[in-house]
Design a protein that fits this description.
Blueprint: H1 2-19, E1 21-29, E2 33-34, E3 39-41, E4 56-58, E5 61-67, H2 68-75, E6 81-84, H3 95-120, E7 126-128, E8 132-137, E9 152-156, E10 159-160, H4 164-172, E11 179-186, E12 189-196, E13 198-199, E14 206-207, E15 210-214, E16 218-220, E17 225-227, H5 239-250, E18 261-263, E19 266-267, E20 273-274, H6 279-288, E21 293-297, H7 301-307, E22 313-317, H8 320-328
Parallel strand pairs: 4-18, 18-21, 21-22
Antiparallel strand pairs: 1-5, 1-6, 2-4, 3-17, 7-16, 8-9, 8-15, 9-10, 9-11, 11-12, 13-14, 19-20
Helix pairs in contact: 3-5, 6-7
């Protein structure tokens, strides 16, 4: 009987190691995706001057739950890595709500990035909004207990904030520990709050710990471009490559030529490029796509170069114009 119980217990443990997820997530590289595959032109009566080249590709990372056995496999795989689940989905945030917010952020970032790329190519573009609305504060971060869901940030230290991307760009440029004054709209009133910037997990830089979207976002471009409904991508890290793809499709420049250009990076309305997560896996995604060039936020160039194989040129950029200039050489 004891032997039978031991065998059953061993079987249960083995089963649990195979299928029961740990509080760990595996970050899995996937081949860089053509920007053209995730975009569509909304207006049937308008079209881009040129197709977006398939060789302009953004990198993304597949996030999967890890069992004990799966975690061991990832540990010995130089191209994958493990992270604690709260580094991706913060504690206290419903996973379904988090995914929904990421999809909304992706849509906003794609539309904004497309407009920025068109503007850089000389098109007449307008991007406006009425502040950054707090959709969620992350427990344990500086925003928790100070900011409320539904607050609309309209200024940081008296600098106006119209878009969520402007808020993210302002905060990411600051140092952890720095105190800022936020001007908010809360319940029909204007409120001032002092908040100290904190260090966010997983190399995401400094910030408050909020998920925000733009109030009354209006983007006016000659050709309306949106992400496809089946894009299945979240977050703003494709912004730089979307902007580059639309720059190519709007103007007469041929930056890419016969190269495959992959990369990653957020982009704000001033065409500044910001940091992202998962650099090592994204470099691998560029390699899997046969990329010749990998565009990366300048602050993360060292990490990208350390992961890059021979033959993949890592190009650090601070702005969209940096990327354009580098590819023109």
């Amino acid at each position: 009987m004891r032997k039978l119980l031991f065998t059953a217990a061993a079987a249960i443990i083995a089963w649990a190691m195979l299928v029961v997820p740990l509080p760990l997530l595996a970050l899995v590289p996937v081949a860089a995706t053509p920007v053209a595959d995730i975009l569509e032109v909304v207006d049937d009566d308008a079209e881009l001057a040129e197709p977006i080249p398939d060789s302009v590709r953004f990198t993304a990372v597949l996030v999967q739950p890890a069992s004990a056995v799966g975690a061991i496999e990832v540990w010995f795989d130089e191209h994958r890595s493990l992270t604690f689940a709260p580094n991706v989905v913060p504690r206290g945030v419903d996973p379904d709500e988090f995914v929904d917010l990421q999809v909304r952020m992706f849509e906003e970032s794609v539309r904004t990035a497309a407009a920025i790329g068109m503007r850089a190519a000389g098109a007449d573009v307008t991007i406006t909004g009425d502040g950054a609305r707090i959709e969620r504060t992350v427990p344990g971060t500086p925003a928790a207990g100070v900011l409320e869901r539904g607050d609309v940030i309209v200024a940081v230290d008296s600098t106006p904030v119209r878009l969520a991307s402007e808020l993210a760009a302002d905060l990411s440029a600051r140092e952890a520990g720095e105190e800022v004054e936020l001007t908010l709209r809360r319940g029909g009133e204007e409120v001032l709050e002092q908040v100290r910037i904190g260090q966010l997990p997983e190399g995401a830089g400094a910030g408050l710990g909020v998920l925000a979207t733009t109030v009354d976002l209006v983007i006016d471009t000659p050709v309306e471009v949106r992400p496809r409904a089946d894009a299945a991508v979240g977050g703003p890290s494709a912004g730089l490559l979307v902007a580059l793809g639309l720059y190519e499709a709007t103007g007469e420049a041929d930056l890419v030529g016969d190269r495959v250009v992959a990369g990653t990076g957020t982009i704000d309305t001033s065409a500044n490029v910001g940091p992202v997560d998962g650099i090592r896996e994204k470099v691998r995604g560029a390699e899997l796509a046969g990329a010749d060039v990998f565009l990366v936020p300048a602050t993360q160039a060292h990490e990208a170069r350390a992961a890059a194989p021979d033959g993949l040129e890592v190009v650090p950029v601070e702005t969209l114009q940096d990327a354009i200039d580098a590819l023109e050489r």
